[in-house]
Specification:
This protein has helices at residues 35-38, 48-62, 67-81, 187-203, 215-229, 279-283; strands at 2-14, 17-31, 85-94, 97-102, 105-113, 118-126, 131-144, 169-178, 235-242, 244-247, 262-265, 271-277. It is α+β, with helices and mostly antiparallel strands and 284 residues long. The protein folds into 2 domains: 1-129, Roll (Urate Oxidase); 141-283, Urate Oxidase. The strands form 3 sheets. It has an 8-stranded antiparallel β-sheet with strand order 1-2-3-6-7-8-9-12. Strands 4-5 form a two-stranded antiparallel ribbon. The protein has a two-stranded antiparallel sheet with strand order 10-11. A hairpin with a 2-residue loop joins strand 1 (2-14) and strand 2 (17-31). The model has no long low-confidence stretch (mean pLDDT 95).
Length: 284
């Protein structure tokens, strides 16, 4: 049981310069005894309102240096404070506020919400067990208008899809990774590096791009690049929900439409998912 959707803004001031973190937190506990379920005995139950207040107090006292460190703080607090807690899981996601720039100059106290992917993390721990930390990015919308195709696929009497060697590749990406044994990581730096890997693997070199023969291959390229560059990541999951675009037929309007006006196909849409990890992790 626990408390969902604890939303708040943490404002930090350094002189005239302000910093903000707006987050949404879910905190769930499992107690050493199920007596509240079986017997109606609430003597061990930490009220969900208390859980909410603890989250807010920790944000006030410790700040939010990174989502992962804040989630770890929450886990540590419940494990060290309440002997009746057998398991705690914390989910934290961030509202994507970025500092506003005017003529290239960063503003000291103004921000803009930029929906270019939502950062999130999870931390979970069993009593006498290891602390597990996961992080990720979701709702990241990506598109490239060429250097993508889909050919040579299996065909039978039900196949109507034509082969394409030049199409728009567009999708909404969800990516989640695990750190394995957590040490003194710079979580903010690692998250930014992984996001850069995702964008690089999707798009390719800025002057020419890189051909994608399928959504599946693009998903694998993202995972392989992250694992090759970020040693702290042990397992990475990527889900790419596809958005398709159809070229509008303008012949009746007396116009030739050379893939210049397209309409999105709202539903149904495709989805590709894969989980990839280091061999030593799976052997363990």
């Amino acid at each position: 049981y626990g408390k969902n959707t604890i939303k708040f803004l943490r404002l930090h001031r350094e002189g005239k310069k302000h910093f903000v973190k707006e987050v949404e937190v879910c905190a769930h506990l499992r107690l050493t005894s199920p007596q509240e379920y079986l017997e109606g005995n609430n003597s061990l139950v930490i009220p969900t309102d208390t859980i909410k207040n603890i989250v807010l107090v920790l944000a006030k006292k410790n700040g939010i240096p990174s989502l992962e460190e804040f989630a770890i703080d929450i886990c540590n607090h419940f494990m060290t404070t309440f002997c009746q807690v057998a398991y705690v899981k914390t989910y934290v996601q961030e509202v994507p506020w970025q500092r506003l720039h005017e003529d290239g100059v960063p503003h000291i106290h103004s921000f803009i919400c930029v929906p270019d992917g939502i950062r999130f993390c999870e931390a979970e721990q069993c009593r006498n067990g290891p602390l597990m930390v996961f992080a990720g990015i979701k709702d990241l919308k990506l598109m490239k208008t060429t250097q993508s195709g889909f050919e040579g696929f299996y065909k039978n009497e039900h196949t109507t899809l034509p082969e394409r060697h030049d199409r728009i590749l567009c999708g909404e990406l969800f990516c989640k990774w695990s750190y394995g044994e957590c040490k003194d990581f710079d979580f903010n730096c690692i998250w930014k590096k992984i996001r850069e890997c995702i964008l690089e693997a999707f798009a390719g070199p800025p002057d020419c791009g890189e051909y994608s023969p399928s959504y599946q291959k693009t998903v694998n390229c993202i995972q392989m690049l992250v694992l090759s560059r970020v040693s702290q990541v042990q397992v990475i999951e990527v889900v790419l929900n596809n958005t398709f675009y159809n070229v509008v037929d303008m012949k009746n309007l007396g116009l030739t439409n050379d893939k210049e006006v397209l309409v999105p196909v709202e539903a149904p849409y495709g989805s590709c998912a894969c989980t990839l990890g280091r061999k030593k992790f799976f052997e363990a």
